[in-house]
Amino acid sequence: MDKFQEFLYRDADKYLELVQEFLVKRNTAWIVSLMNYLEKSERFMVLVGAGHLGGKNGLLELLKAQGCSIRQLGK
Questions:
Q1: With DSSP H G I counted as helix, E B as strand and the rest as coil, what are the percentages for the chain, rounded to 5?
Q2: Is the separation of the CB atoms in 17 and 51 below 8 Å?
């Protein structure tokens, strides 16, 4: 995942406003909805583009910060 994120974000510094608008802001807003779903059910499926998953502002880290346990299925 680290190498994949490195590839996805290799030119992100050239487009900081777009990264903020399309990834960081969206991820932050989605966490509220995701946590609401988790309160109602233990399991559910979320489909997002790969760019939303990794990094410090990615959905995986944001979910961990909310106390969620994350594990990779398959390789």
A1: 60, 0, 40
A2: no
| Residue given tokens 């487009």 in the structure block | 15
Token pair belonging to 59: 């959905």
In whole angstroms, give the CA distance from residue 13 to residue 40: 38
Kindly report the length of the chain.
75
Evaluate if residue 5 carries a pLDDT over 90: no
Q: How confident is the model at residue 1 (pLDDT cuts 50, 70, 90)?
A: low
Spatial contact of 72 and 41, defined as CB atoms under 8 Å apart: no
Q: 17: left (phi > 0), else alpha (psi -120 to 50), else beta?
A: alpha
Query: For residue range 20-51, what is the model confidence (pLDDT) as tens digits?
Result: 887 899 999 999 999 999 898 877 888 998 88
